[in-house]
Amino acid sequence: MSYYFCIVNTRDQPTFEVEFGTSKQGGDGVARFSQEARNLNPFLMHASLDYVDDLQWHTNQMYLKRIDHFASSHISAFLTPTSTRFLLLHLPHPPNTDPIPPPQTSTSFSPYGPYTNSFPGTLTTPSLSSSNTSSSRSSIASVSGGNSIANNPTSPQTEEAIRLFFMEVFECWIKSVMSPFGGPTVGVGSPVFRSRVLAAGKKYL
């Protein structure tokens, strides 16, 4: 799974963004977006803000779960009490593939580069296993256990892992923006904050 994480302020301006890959099932933590998908990801994030703005009036939860998808890319959202949006785009991919894929010869869009031929509007969702029917925050081992997180973006285990990732990033974000030495933009731009986001991604995703 490849991930693109972005923090968007109340003026719909991105203040932080980072890419990383899954660390589960022997993953090396490297994002494997094709160049076309990498250029498209910010636009998908911005388009999903309309869903966040609508959902915030219908729930009292900060974690909004999976709110949007395009082709095989899925977007999950987290809304802070100050209306800052955390957005995570996650894209399943074949494990241990080349992080710098060769150029495509097909004119159709494929978020995987040369690995699949996925057309826009076609959502390929892996089937859910009967064992993936419950999750618990108290058991991180079950969240990090395996196959569903690395390959299935819609499973309950993946949803719970993303929630735990958002919560840890939220705690780090609060400390950064409340720091008298930084501020809302300086704090999240520090290498320390970036390393903590990547550490949370490695821990849960």
Low-confidence stretches: 102-147
What profile does the largest beta sheet have? 5 strands, antiparallel
Number of helical regions: 5
What's the overall geometry?
A: globular
Straight-line distance between termini: 8 Å
Mean pLDDT: 76
The secondary-structure class comes to: alpha+beta
- Which percent range describes the beta-strand content? 15-25%
Q: Which helices and strands appear, and what pairs or packs with what?
A:
Elements: E1 2-8, E2 14-21, H1 35-55, E3 63-70, E4 73-79, E5 85-91, H2 140-143, H3 147-151, H4 156-177, H5 191-204
Antiparallel strand pairs: 1-2, 1-5, 3-4, 4-5
Helix pairs in contact: 4-5
Give a short overview.
Helix content is 32%, strand content 18%. With 205 residues, the chain is α+β, with helices and mostly antiparallel strands.
Question: What can you see in these coordinates?
Answer:
The protein is α+β, with helices and mostly antiparallel strands and 205 residues long. It has helices at residues 35-55, 140-143, 147-151, 156-177, 191-204; strands at 2-8, 14-21, 63-70, 73-79, 85-91. Strands 2-1-5-4-3 form a five-stranded antiparallel β-sheet. The relative contact order is 0.18.
Notable characteristics:
5-stranded antiparallel beta sheet, 205 residues, alpha+beta, 32% helix, 5 helices
